[in-house]
Queue: 3 jobs
Job 1
Amino acid sequence: MDADLVVTRLSRLYTLDPGSQGLGERTDVSVAFAGGKLLYVGDPANAPEAPVTFDGRGCIGLPGLVDPHTHAVWAGSRSSEFARRLAGESYTAILEGGGGIRSTVRATREASTDVLVGSARARIEGMLEHGVTTVEVKSGYGLDPAQEARLLSVARSASARVRVVTTFLGAHAVPEELRGDRDAYVRQVIDEQLPWCAPLADCIDVYCDRGAFTLDEAVEILTAGRARGLHVRAHAEQVEHTGIAAAAAALGATSVDHLERIDDRGIAAMAANGTVAGLLPAAQVYLRDIAPPVARLREAGVPMAVGTDLNPGTSPVRDLWIAATLATLVQGLTIPEAVLGITRNAGRALGRADLGWLGEGSVADLSVFRPPPGEPPAVESLVQFLGDHRAALVVRDGQVVLR
Ligand code: NIG
Ligand code: FE
C-alpha cells in the first residue's frame, strides 16, 4: 500500500504500545500513514515514500495526547470569584451563595449557540496546539433538558480537527428553579434529560459532593446512564468523602476523578474493577487543596490518568502539559506515570482502549514536538519545563491537522 504521509527520522518516538516495555521508547524511527491508518513504524531505511513528508530529526514523537476531563463549553467569567477565593472564601461557600457553577449556568443559558461554539472551538483548538488530538468535554452548565442537549451538540460540533468525546453531566448542580425540590431535579435528569442527551454523549458523570448530589442520588443517575450504554464516570471524593468512588467503581466506572479524599475501600474497589483514577492537579492547586493519595493508588495498581479539568472557576488551565508537570510536582507522579496519564490511561478513562498509543489497533494519531531550546529530544524535558510546548506537527486519523 502507498503511504500518503511519512514522518521521517524522529529522534525519539514513544509509542506507549501496551505490548511494549515502559513508554515504548525508540530512537531514529520513521512513521508512515495511509488512508487514515497507521502503515509503518520502524527503521527509516525501510520506510515507504509519500507525497507529504515531515523531517523528524531533533524531534520527539508521541501518540496524540488525550485530555480526559474538561468542561470546555461555557460562557461568562469568574475572575472576580478568583479574587474572593484568594481572599479566603471557600469554593463551596461561593457555590452556596449562588456563585461558582451556578453563575456559569446563568451566563451559559443566556449565551447564543454561536457564541458557545466560537469560544469552545478556541479552547479546544488551543489544546490541539499543544498536541492534544482527543478532548473529553462535559455538559453541566445547562441543567435542563434542552440546554444540556445543546451543550453536548456544541461540544460535538466545536472542532473538525480535534476528536471530541462527550460526557453528560446534568447532575452538576441543582438549578435555581428547582432548589426547593431537588427530588424533582433528579427525576428530570433521569426521565427527561437522559433520554435526550444519551444519543449525544459517550459517558455519564455526576458531581457527588457537598453542595451537589448525594451518594444515593448519584448512584441512581449513574445506573440510569449505564442502562443507556454510557460509560460511567464521577467527580469523586473532592470536597468531602461520600463513598461515590467505590460505588461508581462497582458500577463498572471507567474513571473516577479528583479523589483528594478517597479512602482505602474506594481504592480497593477501583483496583478490583479496573477503574482509572482521573487526577486533576490544576484544580488541586487553584483550590489550594491536599493531594490525592497517589502512593496508595500506585501500590494498589490503580491506573492513573491526568486531565486539565479546564473550567472557568477551579481550573482555568487548558495546557495538558502543565497538568502533567503539576501531577509530578504536587501529586508525586513519576515522569513516565505523567506521560502515561495524558496518553493511554487517559484513553482508558474514556472507555477508549484505542486512544493514546500508537501501534496495531490504535487510532492513527501522532504529535511531534521540538524539545525546549538546548534540551535533548526526550520526554523528560517536556515534563520538566512547565507547559507551552507547541506541537510542530499533529496527525489525527492519519491526516495532518496542524503543522
Ligand atoms: O471538576 N467540581 C465540580 N466541577 C468542576 C468545577 C466546575 C466549576 O467550578 O465550574 C471541577 O472542578
Ligand atoms: Fe470537573
Note: The longest helix spans residues 113-128.
Job 2
Amino acid sequence: MSTPPPSSIDNKNGSISALQSEGAFQTLVESVRDYAIYIIDPHGYVVTWNLGAERIKGYKVSEVLGRHFSIFYPAEDQEKTDWELQVAKQEGQFKVEGWRLRKDGSRFWADIIITRLNDADGNLIGFGKIIRDLTEHRIAEQKYRLLVEGVTDYAIYSLDINGYVTSWNTGAARIKGYSAEEILGRHFSEFYTPEDVAVGLPQRALKTAAEEGHFAAEGWRVRKDGSRFWSSVVVTAIKDENGRITGFSKVTRDITDRKLLLDEIQRHAEELELRIAEREQTNAELEAFSYSVSHDLRAPLRAIEGYASALDQDYGNTLNEEARGYLHEIQSAATRMNRLVRDLLEYSRLSRNELPIRPVHVRSCVAIALKETGEPEASLSVSIPDDVRVSGNEQTLVQAILNLIGNGLKFHKPGERSHLEISAEVRGNRVRISVKDNGIGIAPEHQARIFRVFERLHGSEEYPGTGIGLAIVKRAAERMNGSVSVVSQLGVGSTFSIDLPKSGSGTA
Ligand code: ADP
C-alpha cells in the first residue's frame, strides 16, 4: 500500500488548506531566527521583516519598514544596490556574498539571495531577500587564507578543475617568480619543462590526483625567468560535499639544494667506485705479475742453491776461507729468497684459487700447525674445546695459525723464550681463535700496518722474516668470511685473533 498523496490527507482531515494559507506561511517566515528574510518593493523599500532579520541586522520592524535597503550596505558598496535589483529583476535571482552593516554600524559577512517576486500576471511586485550571517565562517576562512598566504617556504596554490590557477600564496610568488596578478587564470602547465609538457605530465598529475585523491612527485620545474628548480610536489583533489571534484590544491617545495647535494654525492660515489674498480684491476695485474715473477724465479733459484751446495760439497775444502765465506753468503741469500718467493706465491695463491669452505675442526688445525713448527705441545698452553668447528678451509686455517705461532715464537724478548697460549672460544655464531704471546709487543701506531705486505718493524738481522706472514693471515681470514685483529702492548706481549663463522651458522 502506497502512501496517499497530500491532497487525500487534506480531504480527510481538512487541515491542509489552513496550512496553505498565507498566514501560516508568514508565521513560519517570521519565526525563522537563523536567516534574515524580508521583502522589499520594486524600488528597494523594506515591506516585511522577520525575527531573523531583527536578530542579524539589529533593526526592529518598526525601525526599518519603509526604509531603503541600501542602509544595510557599507559606503563602498552603495552604488551596487540598484544593479543587484536589476540583475534579480532580469534573471529572476541574484546571489552574492559581501560585508553588510548592522544597525550599530558593525559589519557582518552576508550570504545573500535576492529573488524577484511576481504577481499572478508575471508583473514585478518586489523582491524577497534571504540572508545568512557567515561572519564566523568568513573569519575562520580568512585566518586560514592568511596562514596559507603567509607561508614562504612552500608554494601553495589552487587550480580549477581544468588546471587554471585560482589562488597563489607568497611562497609561490617567491619560488616561481610570478606575482598573483600575473599568474591567476593561467594554466599550471606553464611551470613544467617543455619535455614534461610534451609527455603530458601536467595532465597526468591532475588525472592521478582526481582518481587517487593525490599525486606526489619530484621533478624539474620552470620559474618565470626560465630558470629551473628541483621541486617536490603534492597535488590534492578538492571535493565538494557531494564528493564532486571542484579543483586541486598544489603544494610545491624547492628542494634544488638537496637534489644538487644528492647528485654530488652520487657522482662522488660513482667516481669512487670507478677508482676502486681501477685499483682492483691494477692490484689484480700486479698480483698476476708478482705471481709469475715468483713462479719463474723458482727455477733459477733452485739452480743457484743446487750449484752452491754442489760447489760447497765438492770443492769446499779446496777453497780458502774468504771464498768459503762468499759461498755461504750465496747460500743464505738463496735461502732467504726462496722463503720470500714461497710466501709471495702463497699470498697470491690465496686470492687466485677457489677456496672450498667446509666445517673445519679447530683443534686438529692447531695440532697440525704445531707439528709443522716442531714445537712440543707441552711447551705451550692449548685450550680448545674438542667440539669447536668453524666454517672454513683446513689448509688455509692451518697456514694462518702456523704464521701466528711462528711469529709468537720468533718475536720473543732478547734472551728469553716466549710462552704461547692458543685458545678458541665460541662467541655467538662466530669462533675466536687466539694466539697470545709474552714477547716484545707492538706499539699502537704500528698495529694496523703490520697486516700489509712487506711491512716489518725490525731488521732481518734482529728478527728474520719476509713481512708477508700477517698479510697471508689477513687474506686467509677474509677469504673464509672472517677477520683478524691484534691486541698488544709494547714490552708485554701480543694476542692475535682470527674470527671465523661457527660451522653450521651459515655457509658450512
Ligand atoms: P715477518 O714475521 O715475516 O716479519 P709478518 O707479516 O708476519 O712478517 O709480521 C710483520 C711484522 O709485524 C713483523 O715484522 C713484526 O714487526 C710484527 N709482528 C708480527 N707478529 C708479532 C708478534 N707476535 N709480536 C711482536 N711483533 C710482531
Note: The CA atoms of residues 24 and 294 lie 118 Å apart.
Job 3
Amino acid sequence: MQVVTTIEEVRAARRATPALSWGLVPTMGALHEGHLSLVRRAREENARVGVSIFVNPTQFNDPTDLVAYPRTLEQDAKLLEAERVDLVWAPPEEEVYPPGFQTTITVGEVAQPLEGAARPGHFQGVATVVAKLFNVFDPNRAYFGQKDAQQVAVIRQMARDLDFDMEIVACPTVREADGLAMSSRNARLNLAERRAATVLYRALIVAVDAWDHGERDADRLRALLQNTLTTERLARVDYVSVADPETMQEISGKARRALLSMAAFIGATRLIDNMLVGDQ
Ligand code: PAF
C-alpha cells in the first residue's frame, strides 16, 4: 500500500494503470467498520482501491467540531493495509486548498433542507472537496455510506449535473449490536449518552414497523419518530423528516417510498440516522 500526500503522486499512480478500474472511498479518517465496509465493497468491484483521508475544513460550520474531529492517521493506515488498499491519499490542507483558492460548488434544492438547513455551508464544502477528489483520482466508482443519505443525494446530483463519468455507490449503514449507526462521533458519548443514543435506531424501528403494517401518512410517521425520540431524557431533537429520497423534499399526505431521517443531540453530540421504506 502506497501512502502519498500530493495530487501529483495520486495522478502518477492512476496514470500507471490506465486499463484498470479504480474504486475511491473518500473519508475524513478515524476509520471504523462503516468505512471498512465501503473499502471491502470497493475491493470486490475494482482492480485498484484508493482511499482519501482528509478532514475537510470547509464542510464544518462549527469550528469546535472541526477541532474535536479525531485524527488517527497511523491507525487508519494499518486498517487500510489489512484491507489490501492500493493507495491512500492523506494531503495537508494546502495541497487541497492552496493560497488563492476561490472556487466552490453549490448544489441546489436537494442540499437546502435537513442537514443543509441545520449546517449552513456544509454541503458546499462537501460538494467542492468531493469534486476535487473525483478530479484527482478519476475513479470508475466512488463509495459512500447510506448513513449520510442526503450527502449521497447531493453528490449524485452534482455528479449528474457536472458530467462526472463514474458510478456513485451507496452502501448500507453499519450498526453496532444494539442498532446504533457507526460514526466517529460515537466516541464522544459517555456511558449514559451511549445508552441513550440507541433511541435514534429505536425511533426508526417504530416508524418502519408502522410502515410495514400499512401506515403511509407522512405526518403520522413523523409523529412516531418525534414521539419516540422525546421518550429519551438525554436526547434533544433537531429534526425528524419523512422525505423523498432523491429530492429530500418533505412528503405531505401519503408516501409511496420515503427516507425516514432525523438528527438529535445526545448531550452535546449531534447524531443522525435514517432508513428507507417503500420501493426504491
Ligand atoms: O462523509 C465524509 O466522510 C465526508 O463528508 C467526505 C465525503 C469524505 C467529504 O469530506
Note: The mean pLDDT is 98.
